[in-house]
Amino acid sequence: MISIDFTLNGRPCRIDVPAHWTALDLLRDGLALNGTKYGCGEGVCGTCTVLLDGEPVRSCLVLAARLRGRVVLTVEGLDRDGEPDRLQAAFARAGAVQCGFCTPGMLLSARALLASNPSPSEQDVREALAGNLCRCTGYTKIVHAVLAAAGGP
Amino acid sequence: MRLHPFALSEPETVPEAVEVLARFDGEARVIAGGTALVPTMRLGLVRPDRLVSLHRVPALSGIRVDGDALDIGAMTSLAALSRHDAVRARWPLLGQAALRVATPAIRSTATLGGNLCYAEAASDPAPALLCLEAQVRVAGPSGERAVPLAGFFTGFYETAVAPGEILTAVRVPAAPAGAGSGYMRFCPRSAEDKPLVGVAALLVLDAAKRVAEVRIALGGAAPTPIRARRAESALGGEPLTDAAISAAAEAAAAEADPLSDLMGSAAYRREMIRVWVRRLLLSLR
């Protein structure tokens, strides 16, 4: 076991984990935060995306040990006092959700984009979401939702 | 699905990392970003008893401009590399190639050192670094040595890094004054895939618009990334006419030694090398 301290969704977190666990194993099985999904396990599908110090990463590829001392944001940390954040609200308004399995990863990739580029073009949005697969193929509404969130209040 | 159980070492200095690798001779494997190694482990292709993670070694991180040259710590992420101001201003070829690797959430994690040590033949940064005539530094039990990138890739997924050694940094000399450069890649399926072929070139034209210096490198064109020396020879001293560009593209296709795999046959790769060398040179005219 290894011991790690990090900041999770704004709160300090200290936990012991097996050395071979990934960040995704830690979130889902160690901390019961099941919003972050296990899709391909190979870094391709994007549904396990979380933000590490504000940058999107594949939690299925990152060893849990690498979270030590860093700031992690998962989909469970997006809302403010139970109110959906700007992106979540825009996704709901645009109907940018079908089965919902890709949604946590989409939201976090989009959040990282808007943090570095508050007024993205449609092309910017498509490039930022290129690594997030939606097998319902609902991309059009997802892209519209991100653009709406960027332009909205 | 869990990874197989393994022990983890997290050294904080390069000598400590080298010492751990020596102590677990043959049983430990270095992990940098993990974007290549973790899927490989998940597929059961490798099953190391111990990983030596380099993420806590401060000496391996950071990008430093050292006079005319650029020193890049091996653990620098491709994302950090592609947005670094000096890289964008003075080594745009490298920044451009780094930005073409996979997707944002991979580039944030994948490292330049890891990309080179994985030795994927279709690496995006490798052809750019071959054009820039980069060197790598490798640390091992008997100290540190420099290896020109031109001699680094020794075979299919093989490098000059010996067991027990660690790639610590990449040094990129200044590009020749007045050089133009570019990187193009061809992905037959999706843009975030590794390329079928990738082409990097760096060109200096003299006042009469003749080629004073030219460097061309290819990814996906052989078992390793390669310089296309015969294509370079076909251009040297000549004006960049359509005929000269076509001759260089033919030479690149002829000197390539591509493999057949699920992405494309050797014959198709060779043809795409011809097409993309030509397109890239036309764009630099």
Structure description:
The complex is a heterodimer of chains A (153) and B (285). Chain A is α+β, with helices and mostly antiparallel strands. Chain A is built from five helices and five strands; from the N terminus they run E-E-H-E-E-E-H-H-H-H. Chain A has a five-stranded mixed β-sheet with strand order 2-1-5-3-4, with helices on both faces. In chain A, strand 3 and strand 4 form a beta hairpin. In chain A, helix 2 packs across helix 5. Chain A is globular. Chain B contains eleven helices and 14 strands. The longest helix of chain B has 18 residues. In chain B, the strands form four sheets. Chain B has a five-stranded antiparallel β-sheet with strand order 4-5-10-6-7. By secondary structure, chain B is an alpha+beta fold. The model of chain B has no long low-confidence stretch (mean pLDDT 96). The interface between A and B is medium-sized, with 31 and 30 residues.
Tell me the radius of gyration of chain B. Answer: 19 Å
Mean pLDDT of chain A: 96
Q: Please, how many helices of chain B?
A: 11
Question: CATH H level of the largest domain in chain A: which superfamily?
Answer: Beta-grasp domain
**What proportion strand of chain B?**
15-25%
| Most residues in contact: chain pair | A-B, 31 and 30 residues
Average pLDDT rating of chain B = 96
- What structural category arises from helix and sheet content of chain B? alpha+beta
Task: Draw up the topology in text.
The complex is a heterodimer of chains A (153) and B (285).
Chain A: E1 2-8, E2 11-17, H1 23-30, E3 49-52, E4 55-58, E5 71-73, H2 86-94, H3 103-116, H4 122-128, H5 139-151
Parallel strand pairs in A: 1-5
Antiparallel strand pairs in A: 1-2, 3-4, 3-5
Helix pairs in contact in A: 2-5
Chain B: E1 7-9, H1 14-23, E2 28-31, H2 37-42, E3 50-53, E4 63-66, E5 69-73, H3 78-83, H4 85-90, H5 92-98, H6 104-107, H7 112-118, H8 125-131, E6 135-140, E7 143-148, E8 153-155, E9 158-159, E10 166-172, E11 180-186, E12 197-205, E13 211-219, E14 226-227, H9 229-235, H10 242-255, H11 266-283
Parallel strand pairs in B: 1-3, 2-3
Antiparallel strand pairs in B: 4-5, 5-10, 6-7, 6-10, 8-9, 11-12, 12-13, 13-14
Helix pairs in contact in B: 5-8, 9-10, 10-11
